Amino acid sequence: MEHAPAPWLAQYGTYDEKAGQYRIIVTSECRDVCELELAHGDAVANARLIAAAPDMLDTLRLVRPYIAKMVADGVQTAQPPSLVLRKIDRILSEVEA
Q: What is the DSSP secondary structure assignment for residue 94, as one 8-state letter?
């Protein structure tokens, strides 16, 4: 299953009179991706993180081959490349399942 096309934008949505709060909507070019209640203190930060998801996914796909090469070449860094590669692969497998 494909996600909505990027870019995604976090923006204020409608005011919910019943709840007495604004909603934050993350949108793509063709549809709303999600909606969060502004009553939660972390709603704006969560909306920004969600809106950045397509770019983060593209970046993981872009850097994965380089990290895999580091593992194959036995490169050692403060964060072991093999650990980073496992995390990237776990995330990609969850997203692309």
A: H
When pLDDT is averaged across residues 38-46 and rounded to a whole number, the result is: 75
Tell me the per-residue pLDDT of 17-31, one tens digit each, with 9 for 90 and over.
777 777 788 888 878
Q: Residues 48-78: pLDDT tens digits?
A: 889 999 999 999 999 999 999 999 999 999 9
Q: What is the 3-state secondary structure (H, E, C) of the chain?
A: CCCCCCCCEEEEEEEECCCCEEEEEEECCCCEEEEEECCCCCHHHHHHHHHHHHHHHHHHHHHHHHHHHHHHHCCCCCCCHHHHHHHHHHHHHHHCC
